[in-house]
Amino acid sequence: MIEISHAIVGHQRPLIEIEDLVLEKGKVYAIIGRNGGGKSTLLNSLLGHVPLISGNMKIDGMDVHSLRRSILAKHVAFVASKFDGIEYLKVREYISLGKFGSSSIWGQLPKEEAEHVEQLLEELSLLPLAGKFTDRISDGERQLAAVARALAQDTPVLLLDEPTAFLDYKNKKRMMEKLVEIAEQKNKCIVLSTHDLELAMDSSLIFLAIHRGRLEVIERLEKERFSYYFE
């Protein structure tokens, strides 16, 4: 669970004011708003990379900005907008990187952790790609692999920056459906930024709309209100 209270998010200047906000496990939240409005800054604040100007931001009751990176990594996982793949790095090996704190000095995972990687490969339909190099598969497959790598961290919170930005419609829809399924079945709190408003609406996501420096929670966004949040 994420709790934010009396917070001002920004760098040298305030970008977003958040009074009181609670984001629950089992749900997917979509951050929307115009470019430059603070979507990425909010995600980076949740990752502990950008300090708050004021206020508090907690994950599972712990202050995000007072935790060591190694501890925060046990509570929050992140997926960037695009993963281009790495030469000679296979999908299974890439997902196993999410277990970075569990491997031996020889790079071997304990049996239980290795089984979790295999489970993720199966759940995200990546098993046929497990032995392929990450730079030799499609954009959609790489994004799913990136989600699997984040899930391998086994954190209660998953943050994604424009996860559908470089995908075709079929893979965009597949990604949204998979994230909703993951949130519900694995009891994760998932927060993503997106410009794919209609797709997010069809997927029944909860919107965190940034407008004129404030954040508003919208359970259901009407299409005629789209332009309002991009003024």
Describe this structure in words.
The protein is α/β, with parallel strands linked by helices and 231 residues long. It is 30% helix and 25% strand. The chain has seven helices and ten strands. The protein has helices spanning 39-46, 69-72, 91-96, 111-123, 139-152, 169-186, 197-202, and strands spanning 2-10, 14-23, 27-32, 54-59, 62-63, 76-79, 157-161, 189-193, 206-211, 214-218. The protein has a six-stranded mixed sheet with strand order 6-7-8-3-9-10, with helices on both faces. A four-stranded antiparallel sheet has the order 2-1-4-5, covered by helices on one side. Helix 4 (111-123) packs antiparallel against helix 5. The longest helix is centred in the C-terminal third of the chain and has 18 residues, at 169-186. The protein is globular. The mean pLDDT is 89.
